[in-house]
Amino acid sequence: MIISLSTIFTKMVINSLLLVVVAVSLKNLNRNRIFNTNILFFIISLSILSTIFPLEFDYTITIPSKTVMPRIQDIFIADIFQIKEFEVKGYMIIFAIWIVGSLVKLTILIKQSLRLHSFVKLFSKKSMKTNINGRTINILYLPVVDSPSVIGLINPTIIIPDINLSKEEFNFILSHEVLHISNFDLIIKYFYEFIMIVYWWNPLGYIFKDKMDQILEIRVDEGVLEKNNTNEDKIKYVETLLNVSKQLQTNDEAALTSYFAVSGNKDLLLDRSKNILNYNKRKSNNKFIKFIFAPLLLLGFLILSSIVFEPYSLPPEEEGTEILSFDPKTSYIIKDGESYLFYINGSLALNKDKKETKQLLKSEQFKDMKIYNKGEKKLSSKQDDGKSVNKQTDSVVNNKTSSSTEFFVKNDDKYDYYKKGQFCNSYNEKDFEVIKRSATFKHVKVYDKLPD
Fold first, then answer.
1. What whole-number distance in Å separates Cα of residue 1 and Cα of residue 241?
2. Among 87, 286, 323, 385, which residue carries the largest CB count within 10 Å?
3. Which residues touch 346 (CB under 8 Å, ≥6 apart)?
4. Quick check: helix, strand or coil at residue 365?
5. Residue 259 bridge partners (DSSP)
6. Are 139 and 152 within 8 A, CB to CB?
7. In which element (H, E) is residue 212 found?
8. Contact indicator for 257, 149 with CB cutoff of 8 Å
9. CA 410 to CA 421: how far, in whole Å?
10. How far is CA 114 from CA 143, 159, 256, 257, in A?
């Protein structure tokens, strides 16, 4: 499992598409037979999960990006300035800004939470306790709150503003807020706020947060209407929303509360009102939905992790480096832990990691090579941890390959391979140490300069 710039970028692209689906579906919720609030809540949850864990797995398919990703990569690895002998790279400045921004966001969130809870604690003596569905819940009447809301994770408190409410309106509000508590909506909101502490720089996160709040409110509205489903009930419920919104002005600062009516957001009130008036009671098995939610969420996460956009780079032969010719029948790759051992004509020639192997397999030279797990393929009659040779390799050695026709020339930190006086390939020190131990190359001489 790998977390990288590429996986974060890929999840942003995928989440953008999910956001479009959610936004369109919310606008046409009652006319849409496919998407309901449960499906939309699932999509939002899937987006949150993929944002927290932008992972790349062994089965992930790499999609090369020739424009966007290479430019982003260039910004990250660019030399910005130098302090004595220390080079300051682009990614260092970006991560420094990222951390500072997260700390500022966390500080603001903590201050809001402490201010809110200290305010409630100040008036806690005026609260009353009630038992709803076997759970004790505090109800607090405050003259200065912006909207009926719920605060507190461990000991939830329903706050009712000092406004004119009929008994029926009060019951609607109480039912609404109790459903927020039973649905654990505050935990979801806390969770998402902490995600935004990390991804504060991502504008999609704030849009998703608004859509998530809208889905949570509509889901609770539908829960209230499950028991109050007559046309008269729907009209009275909408009137309650409008009455509360008219009498109060909601403050958007308190991110960690659940609001009954957000007066500042007329579009949200309009969408909720339309959904309430057009709501038709659906037969649904909530226990079944809860049972399959986690497995479906995991499956969706694994599917979203099946692709990743990587910066495009030219395969080796396009860079002007000639690869040694080999017989595909006797050439293959052995996966040994995190390493991929390339056997060419029966002899170990290259030792690459996963990323390098993926890049090599895109080239014409290597694309048809098969990958085997260690122990799955018999390497030779005499196997010795990757140093064994097969009969074909032994015949090469027995023919006493002349060092005058094959040789290596050390060129700085690379080793150039020549055959019959012609340059064939260039190896770094790591690969050279591996291939020099193989039977094909162990008798080949190494020169500091081209021999006469």
1. 48
2. 323
3. 330, 331, 379, 380, 389, 390, 392, 393
4. coil
5. 149
6. no
7. helix 203-225
8. yes
9. 15
10. 20, 16, 11, 13
Contact 151, 117 (CB under 8 A): yes
Give 138's contacts (C-beta < 8 A, 6+ positions apart). Answer: 124, 127, 128, 129, 152, 155, 156, 157, 158
Look at the alpha carbons of 344, 346, 349, 350 in this order and tell me if their dihedral is positive or negative.
Answer: positive
The 10s digit of each residue's pLDDT in 263-275 is 456 777 888 888 8
Phi then psi for 375, rounded to 5 degrees? 90, -10
Distance CA 264, CA 67 (A): 41
Q: In the structure encoding, which two tokens stand for residue 178, read together?
A: 């109790």
In this prediction, residues 361-390 reach a mean pLDDT of 61
SS3 content of the chain, % helix, strand, coil (to 5): 50, 20, 30
The encoded tokens of residue 367 equal 């694309």
Quick one: DSSP state of residue 128? E
Tokens read off for 414:
């690379």
Q: Does the pLDDT of residue 398 top 70, yes or no?
A: no
Task: Residue 433: name the closest of 446, 422, 421 by CA.
Answer: 446
Tokens of 237: 């419920």
Euclidean distance between CA atoms 323 and 277, whole angstroms: 70
* Position 96 pLDDT exceeds 60: yes
Place of tokens 């293959």: 332
The predicted-structure confidence for 117-169, as pLDDT tens digits, reads as follows 787 777 776 677 777 666 777 888 776 666 677 887 777 888 887 778 888 88
Position 402 pLDDT exceeds 70: no
60 contacts 38 by C-beta, under 8 angstroms: no
> CB of 366 within 8 A of CB of 306?
no
Calpha distance 301→1 (Å, rounded):
14
